Amino acid sequence: MLLALVHVAAVGGITAYAIWHGVTLSAVIVGVTFAVLTIFCISAGYHRLLSHRAYEAHGVFRAFLLFFGAGAFQKSALAWSANHRRHHASTDTDHDPYDINHGFWYAHMGWVLRKGSPESSPMPVHDLERDPLVRWQDKHYGKIGIVSGLMLPTLMGLCLGDWMGGFIVGAALRLMVTYHTTFAINSFAHFLGSRPYSRLTSARDSFFVALFTMGEGYHNFHHTFPADYRNGVGRFQYDPTKWVLYGLSRLGVVKKLRRTPVAAISRARLRAATA
After folding, report:
1. Can you tell me whether residue 225 is helix, strand or coil?
2. pTM for this entry
3. Hey, which residues does 57 pair with through a beta bridge?
4. What is the dihedral of CA 125, 127, 131, 135, to 10 degrees?
5. Using one digit for the tens of pLDDT, what is the confidence trace for 6-56?
6. Helices 25-40 and 59-70 sit at what angle, rounded to 10 degrees?
7. How many other C-beta atoms can be found within 10 angstroms of the C-beta atom of residue 235?
8. Residue 56: which H helix or E strand, with range?
9. Looking at residue 173, what DSSP letter applies?
């Protein structure tokens, strides 16, 4: 229901807004700002920090990630991580909640629209259940999402002289875009691209997906080495999340960035090349 409402509000809203008002620079600034914030917090927070424990972070930064991550309206970090860990544990099987073998559109968004089967139920996440910040966000997820994902972009638009653009572009359209960028990792990154590290799963490396997801498109590497804080392991591979986390590690905001040994990566590439 929420997914449908978002699409109606985004497509209908931006069409009417563009015709009768015209898209302002303020609206574009709000939209881009909150899209980057939201996608980064899903990538660095929900995914790399909480789902995979790829690094440790200061409490203030963790709260920041949880606050703006809720604005993606993809459930709480607790529920998201439980689902994502099931995906990694059961990739390409009936236990995978977004199994690409059920078809491209099922992996992209069909799985959201139908009730999941019992065998693909979320995995236990006892470590996250012991985290007070994660529990707080899980308990108040809806309210936090409304504030960070709807009210703040509208308020920013108001401060820049265009509250309507702040809501339509910064909230509704941005939310639709965020949904599809996240969904693309489950669909495109399991359908198109290369498999330089492992041919055991459908996960693929795709610069195209990385471009829109803050670096999450190097999915073959990620499925092969899920605990690594990097997705784009190459020096020049496009992975802004990796660059930001590394920068924050130099400032002491994050620490214990987990890196896969170079020898293990080389062995994986050799096995994949000869498979």
Report:
1. coil
2. 0.94
3. 254
4. 10
5. 999 999 999 999 999 999 999 999 999 999 999 999 999 999 999 999 999
6. 120
7. 5
8. strand 56-57
9. I
What is the phi/psi pair of residue 194, to 5°? -105, 160
Tokens describing residue 141: 């997820």
| 40 within 8 A of 233, measured Cβ to Cβ | no
Q: Which parts of the chain fold into alpha helices (H)?
A: 2-20, 25-40, 59-70, 77-89, 104-105, 111-113, 126-129, 132-139, 141-145, 152-159, 163-167, 174-186, 207-212, 219-224, 240-251, 262-274
CA distances, 232 to each of 35, 53, 98, 203, 263 (Å): 21, 17, 23, 14, 17
What 3-state DSSP class applies to 193? Answer: coil
Mark 205-220 as b/e (b = at least 16 C-beta within 10 Å). bbeebbebbbbbbbbb
Q: Which residue has the tokens 């990385």?
A: 210
Q: Which amino acid is at 88?
A: H
pLDDT at 112: 87
Q: What is the dihedral of CA 212, 124, 3, 65, to 10 degrees?
A: -50
Give the pLDDT score at 115: 65
Q: Model confidence over 179-196: pLDDT tens digits?
A: 999 999 999 999 999 999
Range in 1-15, 96-110, 131-145, 205-219 the model is least confident about: 1-15
**pLDDT for res 275:** 76
β-bridge mates for residue 266, sequence order: none
pLDDT, position 37? 97
Measured distance CA(234)–CA(228) in Å, rounded: 13
Phi-psi region of 53 (alpha: psi -120 to 50; beta: other; left: phi over 0): left
